[in-house]
Amino acid sequence: MLLTIRGTLPAVILGLALGTALCAGQDRAEMRDAYLASCAAGYSDEHQMLGTPFRSPGYHSQVAEGTWVHPTRQSLAYAVALVDRGEVEDLARAEKIIRKVLTLQVTDANHDYYGIWPWLLEEPVDKMAPPDRNWADFLGAQIAVLLKDYPKRLSGDLVEAMRTSLRHAAVEIRRRNVQPSYTNIAIMGGGVCAAAGELLGDDDLLAYGRDRLQRCVADAAYHGSFNEYNSPTYTMVALNEAERVLQLVEDEAARTAAEQLRRAAWQIIADSYHPATGQWAGPHSRAYSDLILPSLADYLEEQAGVRIAARHSGNGRPVTYDGLRHLPCPDELRERFARLPCDPLEIRRTFIRKEDEADSIRGTTWHTVDACLGSVNRSMMWTQRRTLIGYWRTDDEPVVVFRQRFLHDGEDFSSIGVRNDQRGPRVLSLFEPLRNHGSWHPTLDRPENGVFRAMDFRVRYQLAGRNVTATKLDEQTFELAAGERRAVVHVLPGRFDGRDVVWECGVKDGLAVVDGICYGGAPKDFDFTTFDDVRLAVAIELLGENEPPATGPAWLDDKDTTDAAQWCVGEETLRVVR
For residue 189, how many C-alpha atoms fall within 13 Å in the half-sphere facing its CB? Predict the structure, then answer.
């Protein structure tokens, strides 16, 4: 039977008791020492910071990929770990790092970027494009840990300099005043301000931090989830920052809010966790890889008692040490990590509630014993979004990954949006152009004139893993298969800028694809301030080996819309409207 669960996060995050258990000190010390050993070779006594090849996300920095750099955040994290171990040589090195990092903060209260740090020693704040205000939160949190937990291990003058630095960061965080919709930074900054208020004896900062954490609780209760919904990266940041508040802050109201946020995060993880593959089922608002990262896998194995075989081998993001004493998964949720409550299980969640319910952002996640599939009802095709993603086990490996994408010259394209309607293992999708967006990033690379130059635009459905196959069944039906499951892709006749969309499939280097080529040829300008000539709809179904495909979807004539498509499968009707 099918069990459908509708989002219950408001009930979960209200009125909960505080947890008190901490990780075993020996395990934490072993992790710290392994981290310190991995960092040692990268330390530069000349620069008094860690050195590493730069891995650019494509925004904020103009430094070239692969350049040897000295990052502020990772260097300060290294200092926290050194102070935590506390040997004489450790403390001497840590003091050098902390003093150097403090010199890089903008301390002029009249400066546009007061209170923040650059990402890199090699690229001061004024040279960034643009500077990242979040560095006040990230580095402020690390300084708060040092001041709360280790002040007696550091020189008195350095402690005073850190107190001054923390005040600069906290004042900037308060001035910026991000709203709860920026989930991870809203929680992190609230915690930094609350901790700074207590550490510096500033009642106003404490009150601001407390209020901000409480507003995050209320916001999650109203929407049904964090606005940065179901993110393997930023749900964990929110959870860890809630843990940080519980570690650093004594104020009971702030602690209660932090515990409510911590449990809300664990509920999100439990709802999305797929036991057979060990993966975080979609959809994901922000993710940096398709598979669970090693740090997240280690955390879930330790705190929820699971074992995860398939994990991303590396995410291109530097490993850090946060100095936190992590809290375990709440007892009432641990069983969910061991097995599904029923098979199949379908969860429908509201992520962002709008005044008009039709505009709300909602997600559907379908689980069965060996597979899962998740989609969001509307989104952009940003590189960090997983608008539709599925996982299943095969005999060849623990997990293969199925994804929906839209590419501009081979890179994910933020100026195309998608509307999805999902019922169980089936999703109907309609793609549309978006106004006032960027290409690689939603805003940071947005062209002033709205014009994108392209040699290739294509929608892609891909399956990554060992022994994957791609097969054309007929002119409008394709199959991506691995093991005993396959994703059947049904396409409708499409148009893009006056051209018919041409469909093809193939396999290369462990990636099986079905591509709808929207444009391919000489470089051409596309003006997205007026561009509207897109008619593109696709349906997919995740089937077992012997399940026959359904009849494909159809375009509807709807005088009130630009496009509408419908898919009738048995008693279910899926419909998307642009």
Answer: 31
